[in-house]
Structure formats: structure tokens, C-alpha cells
Design brief:
Structural class: mainly alpha
Radius of gyration: 22 Å
Helix content: 55-70%
Shape: elongated
Order of helices and strands: HHEHEEEHHHHHH
Number of strands: 4
Number of domains: 1
Largest sheet: 4 strands, mixed
Length: 312
Amino acid sequence: MKKIKTVYDHIRSNNIKTIALVISFPLIFIALIFLFTWIVVPAQDAFQVAINVAIPTFIACAVWLLISWAFGDSMMLHSAHAHEIFDTDTENREIFRAVENVAIAAGLPRPRVYIIDDDSMNAFATGRSPRDASVALTRGIIKKLDRLELQGVIAHEMAHIGNRDIRLDMMLITGVGVTVFAADMIFRLAFVSGGNSEDNKNSSAAVLLMVWMAFMVFNWIITPILRMAISRNREYAADATGAQITRNPMALASALRKITTDSRVECLDKVKSMAAVCIAYPGGPREFASSLMATHPPVEKRIERLESMTGK
């Protein structure tokens, strides 16, 4: 008889995969720079170049991460045109209480609650830590889901807060932004250096060009694959944790079936970086070349995992 995976099995498995993927980012980055520069300089020099490039890049990532840490949540809520609701709002008191009750069940502080005036069905969580987190829900998801389904969605978002997924995604978005900017600067330096060099193979321009190529491979091939893999694993983990909070995985499975029929949030069409934080892909029709680039796992697989937790 096939063993049924529990909620804890899913959470443990996904956390291990995520840690491995995060560790691989800096290691692959350094390895790419070394391999590309090794083409034009000896191995010892290539290793030194890799270290010399990696250190300031990591420092820049850390500085930009602090900036994102301070203003990232407000920027995300602003991009979604979300507005905060309070317990005193008669119209929104029920949804406010629903978030509060799920937070109590999850053993977490109640997050701030925001509403997005869009008739589609989607939701996301943001914030630096559980103590200053926010949950945003569209008008559509509030109107079109029943009480238990909506609780499942809120629990999914509370799971992201409790699992510190917001912090992880902010780190990845920051890292990508810094390396893209660094690649552009290195290309400009290579172009300027090349104009003053007679031997491109052994010149600093050649080394800079190889470093730029390493950045390009990292930014446009490696990073998207790893980032999307991390995002998908975190979605699975949030589904499992959300099911644990409500003790009702079938409610979340039912909600996901409805959400994927109309998850587009128009104001987020041009904010691609926010796709990974939403419970379902918030853009228009997908144009992915392959499933590797998807920010979310196939909904069928998410539902299958949720159903397996009930033994069905």
C-alpha cells in the first residue's frame, strides 16, 4: 500500500529543496565567472577575477536588499492599487475577521488586510516579517469563493508569512536586479577598454567581455530556472501549511480550481516580479516556452497533492 504523505512530509521536502536551490545561486555565479574568464586567462587568474567580481556584487546585493527591506512591501501594495481595511469598516468587517481568525489558528500576529478593487480572483502576502506582514485580496476572490474556500486562500497566504517566503522572494528579486545592472556596467567598461587595446585576447577588455558573458548566462538562463523552481517549491509548501492551518485541504483545492479560471489582475500585467508572490499567476495568457519558466506549479498537481493529504 502506498504511503500517504502528510502535511509535514510536504513541508520538510520543499524546505530541503529550497535551501539547496538558494545555496546554489552564489556557487553557480562564481563558477560561471571562473569558467568564462578561464578561456582568456590562466586558471589562477580566472579564480581571482571570479572572487574580485563576486565580492562587490554580493555587497551591492546586500545594500539593495536593505533598501528593498525598508520599502519593498509598500511598493508591492502600491503596484496592486491595494487599500487597507479596518475592523471599523462595516462593509469589510467579515473579511477582516476571517483573516484575524486564520492568523490565530496559524499562531501568527494578525497581518494588515488590504483589498484590491479587481473582479478577478487572486491574493498575495507581503512584509518583512510576521509582525509587519500584510495580506491583499481582490474583490473577486472575496465575492466568488465560499467561506471555507476563502479561509483556505487566507491560510495559504498566512503560510507564506509563517514560512518566511516573503523574505526569500525579496532576496531573489533584489539579487536579479543587481546582477542585471552590473552586467550592463561591465559591458560598457569592456567596450571602453577594447578601444584602447591592441591584443583583445590578453587585454582587460577580453576579461571583462568574458565576465559580461557569464553575467548574461547567469541572468537570463540560470537565474530564471532556479528562481522559478524555488517559487514552485514554496507554493507547494504554502499549500501544505495552509491545509495544516485549516485542517481542510479540500477547501483550498476547490478554491484553486475556481481561481485559475480568472486570476488575471490587470494592474499587475506590467509588474512581472510580483507574479511569484500571488497565489496564482496574475498576468494575461501564458506565453512560456516551457514549464521551467512558470512561477507556479500546474494547478492540477497542486490539487493532487492537497487531495493526497486526505487519503483520496
